[in-house]
Automatic annotation (TrEMBL):
This is Histidine phosphatase family protein. SUPFAM superfamilies: Phosphoglycerate mutase-like (SSF53254). Transmembrane segments: none annotated. The lineage of its organism: Bacteria, Pseudomonadati, Pseudomonadota, Betaproteobacteria, Burkholderiales. SMART domains: PGAM. It comes from Herminiimonas glaciei. CDD domains: HP_PGM_like.
Length: 184
């Protein structure tokens, strides 16, 4: 299977804001730009899966329609990590002690009382396992940088705790609207 992992376009949010599970819109020009750059490199008639957050849904719907794919399948397991009461706060407003606690336990700590990276890794692995069972040639997944890192970690044959650690320790450089192709 060829897995086409796409990060959503830049959402409408102030810089330096923690916004994991918060449902944010994308400006029309950002959506159009991502759509135009992805269209030539994505397969036609593939299955499309998407996070149910708007910043992913809008892109998945427009791409699916243009590529002649069935309507996207929205899956909660592809949603970004929930940062609890850190959501929509600037990183400067989050107490340094809390950020330090997270950096000391990147896998199990639940930032803002939300989800841990381990919890997110468990749901991403469950999604990936079900995707494998479908035995399809191409799958397009529109989601978030953290989810992309975890899906990529699945391809290294790592256990769920190893996936979580791999994703937590590896800084990402996945740009908005970027595509990562993984051959499974």
């Amino acid at each position: 299977m060829h897995l086409y992992l796409v990060r959503h376009p830049r959402p409408i949010v102030a810089a330096n804001t923690c916004y994991g599970r918060t449902d944010l819109a994308v400006a029309a020009e950002e959506l159009a730009s991502a759509h135009a750059s992805l269209l030539p490199v994505l397969p036609r008639n593939a299955m499309v899966f998407s996070s149910p957050l708007r910043r992913c849904m809008d892109l998945s719907e427009s791409l699916a329609q243009t590529l002649g794919c069935a309507k996207p399948t929205y899956d909660e397991r592809l949603a970004e990590m929930h940062f609890g009461d850190w959501e929509m706060r600037t990183w400067d407003d989050i107490p340094r002690t809390a950020i330090d606690a997270w950096s000391n336990d990147m896998v199990e700590y639940q930032p803002g009382g939300g989800e841990s990276v381990m919890q997110v890794a468990q749901r991403v692995r469950a999604f990936r396992d079900e995707l494998t069972e479908l035995q399809i040639e191409h799958a397009i997944v529109i989601c978030h940088a953290g989810i992309i890192r975890l899906l990529a970690a699945c391809e290294h044959g790592l256990s769920v705790p190893e996936m979580a650690l791999y994703a937590a320790q590896k800084p990402h450089k996945i740009r908005y609207g970027e595509l990562l192709v993984v051959d499974c």
